[in-house]
Amino acid sequence: MFGLRSQSLPLILFIVVIGSFANVAAQQNNTSEFQPIGRGATDAEIADWDIDIEPDGAGLPKGSGTVARGGEIYDAKCANCHGPTGSENPGDTAIVPNIANRYCCATTLYDYINRAMPYYASQSLRPEEIYSLVALLLNLNDIVPENFVANASTVPAVTMPQAANYGINPWTSDVIRQPGYPWSHDNP
Ligand code: HEC
User: Fold this and answer.
1) Which of 61, 101, 125, 153 is the most exposed place for a label (fewest CB within 10 A)?
2) Whole-angstrom distance, CA of residue 128 vs CA of residue 73
């Protein structure tokens, strides 16, 4: 570059810029309608996203939790929003008695807490903590006794009070939905 006269510089820049436009245009012309963007997800990446717990308990991890331990965690991480016993807040956040009144399956409770709570730090809880909270919340909803131990076999075995009022799965368009579906504040 040092040997070039300064008048040459704009010309060189012009050629470089035009050249790169031409290159892009050539690439666009050479590609088919669907461009291969990105790559397939790896098994490890899919496993990281695949956190759902199915109604029958498929996906539940190892570990267990008690009502008593759940009480400690609840006081530290949940009571500030859900109230000292879970029944203080009206509407959507009244986890007592919403869980008894609405959930088809105890496994849904695990799934929900695992993916969404605490509200400000979702997916921060370990399996033992979630099992303990499930045990506590089922107990506060009068569904299991105080000595209930939650784990991958006991949680799917719990019969929820509303279980019989849920429709068949998979739902098809010829099946009439439950009265009041979908739930709303006007139609609890
Ligand atoms: C910062 C406030 C906050 C904290 C802390 C919090 N929650 Fe929640 N929780 C909410 C809100 C808001 C909702 C309603 C979310 C919605 O409907 O989308 C909710 C909903 C829920 C529900 C569903 C209730 C229903 O009617 O189905 C459960 C269960 C629950 N929380 C459990 C917990 C547990 C367990 C903890 C502690 C680990 C916790 N939450 C901590 C704010 C909070």
Assistant:
1) 153
2) 11
For ligand 1, say whether the CB of 133 is within 6 Å of any of its atoms: yes
The best mutation among 67, 74, 81, 115 to test binding of ligand 1, ranked by most ligand atoms within 8 Å of the C-beta, falls on 81
Bridge partners, 151 (sequence order): 64
CB 96 within 8 A of CB 87: yes
Q: Are 72 and 153 in contact (CB under 8 A)?
A: no
Q: Which domains does the chain have, with CATH numbers?
A: 60-164 (1.10.760.10)
Q: Does any ligand 1 atom lie closer than 6 A to the CB of residue 120?
A: yes
Beta-carbon contacts of 107 under 8 Å, excluding residues fewer than 6 positions away, are 53, 54, 55, 56, 57, 60, 155, 156
Q: Residue 21: is its pLDDT beyond 90?
A: no
- Alpha carbon distances (Å) from 151 to 12, 65, 107, 167, 186: 71, 7, 10, 26, 36
- Asked if 57 and 107 touch (Cβ cutoff 8 Å), the reply is yes
> What integer is the mean pLDDT of 129-149?
98
